[in-house]
């Protein structure tokens, strides 16, 4: 009787120690699902989904608060990837959040820029170089094309220019295989 | 052992923007970062302290300002348009200025 009790207690201690060690050794920082969703999102930080940035939207999707079709810059491809990751049905982009556009970057017309810094304050990724009464310039590699700088400009000198498809910007298209009905 | 700080130096032209990472000793100044970036040799037209004002992240600073880690030193170019003339032109055309252009260009 005593032997059985001791054996059970011994097993409990050993397993407890193993679990305790594992929880420290394999500790996961943050929610891995949020990270995976965030990696699919285009990181434009444009806020068109209704959340302040891509990470908050990823968190909302992971918690089931937001749907997967609220990201216009990610487009259909992004929705397909999110549907694959989360095991959900693909659905078309929600119209209230905007329409998919070709990737663009902001361009400042130097003839009209008055150096007011309003676009710099609006830029979520610090892609505009400039200061008060100095020329403002968009740094193309940093610009995500979120269009948040266009509206604040008091002299309408910012336009969105589509990015030409080059070897660096070309991406694999999502393969769409049409299923034919068997007759 | 002296600590190192990593900063970026940027000089932006409409279709060509330079963004150069430099590693400097802690306590380095804006002008040291620009010297280390090599931009002055590449673009001889840059005139720090003259036509080209300097700043850190959209705030104008003096060339001897001390940098902090992960700052972005920015070399600015002067405006082409006269803000007053642009505003007057827009007013004549009957367009409204949104938000009054902010406080930055008023003073």
UniProtKB/TrEMBL annotation, chain A:
Cross-referenced PROSITE patterns: 4FE4S (PS51656), 4FE4S_FER_1 (PS00198), 4FE4S_FER_2 (PS51379)
Entry's localization field: Cell inner membrane
Signal peptide: none
Any one of the GO CC terms: plasma membrane
Domain 4Fe-4S: 29-88
Role according to the record: Part of a membrane-bound complex that couples electron transfer with translocation of ions across the membrane.
NCBIfam families (UniProt xref): PRK05113.1 (NF003475), rnfB (TIGR01944)
Name this polypeptide is given: Ion-translocating oxidoreductase complex subunit B
UniProtKB/TrEMBL annotation, chain B:
Domain of life of the source: Bacteria
One protein family per Pfam: Ub-RnfH
Gene3D superfamilies membership: RnfH-like
Family of this protein: Belongs to the UPF0125 (RnfH) family.
HAMAP family xrefs: UPF0125_RnfH (MF_00460)
Identification of the protein by name: UPF0125 protein C8261_00420
